[in-house]
Specification:
12 strands, about 25% strand, about 35% helix, 7-stranded parallel beta sheet, binds nicotinamide-adenine-dinucleotide, disordered N terminus, Dihydrodipicolinate Reductase, domain 2, Rossmann fold, 5-stranded mixed beta sheet, about 270 residues, alpha/beta
């Protein structure tokens, strides 16, 4: 295996480099002083195979051509914002070759999450459904709000994303639900209510409601509502550019380079 000869510079492989997030990841990589793009992957036999990843991202050429095969000698950290089925295959590759990962893919099922946890015994992985600093700060605020307000409020999580998003509710909304449920000593699997229709009956205060909006080009918006009789608190985060996620991913990649094993979250990266 080739050693990293660039000292502190973390060599990055981006999978899904031509995707919505992939292009922003290539851009963020080129803007960071700590990381260097060395591999850019796309799905086999795609039309962009052999194109320069920088040109596809709309910036200057990066001298990294889009390919379909990972080369373990060429990178330190693999960044994956794709689809759970692709992420699972990349996890196998990284486990086999002792490589680190930053995973932003959402919609991962319980089996894949368990696999990630087990893989953390052998390699270092940072897995987060949302890599923006603002959202991770919101998770802390939500934990505090839930702890203070306890069972005295109705809690609803409302999220909106662009029309191309394939999973619902968003990974971020689910993470918010998990943090709140954890602070209240509830099990999200038992207390979550996804959308409502028809004769629903009165609201059960023990539930956490999720509402999903899919429309146009919305990058990502989340509001958590804590509503009581007479007052309500709303904690809202709005992402206006995917750049915020991509910058967070670069920060995470440089951070995970110094870890040898473990499954981490963005709160670890940010020291929250
Ligand atoms: P996208 O469909 O635009 O991009 C995915 C890319 O992966 C596509 O270009 C596709 O061709 C490529 N791909 C598919 N199969 C592949 C394979 N076998 N090998 C290599 N590349 C392959 O989707 P997107 O909007 O960029 O979102 C990707 C994922 O990232 C989603 O799960 C989304 O929810 C998630 N996401 C996470 C964050 C975060 O902060 N964690 C932020 C935004 C999006």
């Amino acid at each position: 295996m080739t050693d990293n000869l660039t000292g502190d510079l973390t060599r990055i492989a981006i999978v899904g480099a031509a995707g919505r997030m992939g292009r922003h990841l290539v851009m963020a990589c080129s803007e960071s002083e700590n990381v260097q793009l060395t591999q850019a992957l796309e799905k086999p036999e795609g039309p962009l195979m052999g194109s320069d990843a920088g040109i596809i991202a709309g910036i200057e050429a990066q001298d990294v051509l889009i390919s379909e095969t990972l080369d373990a000698d060429q990178f330190d950290v693999l960044i994956d914002f794709t689809h759970p089925s692709v992420t699972a295959l990349n996890l196998d590759f990284c486990l086999k070759h002792g490589k680190k990962m930053v995973i932003g893919t959402t919609g991962c099922d319980e089996a894949l999450v368990k696999k990630l946890e087990a893989a953390g015994e052998s390699i270092a992985i940072m897995y987060a459904p949302n890599m923006s600093v603002g959202v991770n700060l919101c998770l802390k605020l939500l934990q505090t709000a839930a702890t203070v307000l306890g069972d005295t409020v109705d809690i609803e999580i409302i999220e909106a994303h662009h029309r191309h998003k394939v999973d619902a509710p968003s990974g971020t909304a689910l993470k918010m639900g998990e943090v709140i449920a954890g602070a209240l000593g509830r099990d999200l699997k038992e207390c979550a209510v996804y959308g409502r229709e028809g004769q629903t009956g009165a609201r059960d205060r023990q539930t956490i409601g999720f509402e999903t909006i899919r429309a146009g080009d919305i990058v990502g918006e989340h509001t958590v509502l804590f509503a009581a009789e007479g007052e309500r608190i709303e904690i809202t985060h709005k992402a206006s550019s995917r750049k915020t996620f991509a910058t967070g991913a670069m920060r995470a990649a440089h951070w995970i380079q110094k870890k040898s094993t473990g499954l981490y979250g963005m709160d670890d990266v940010l020291g929250l």
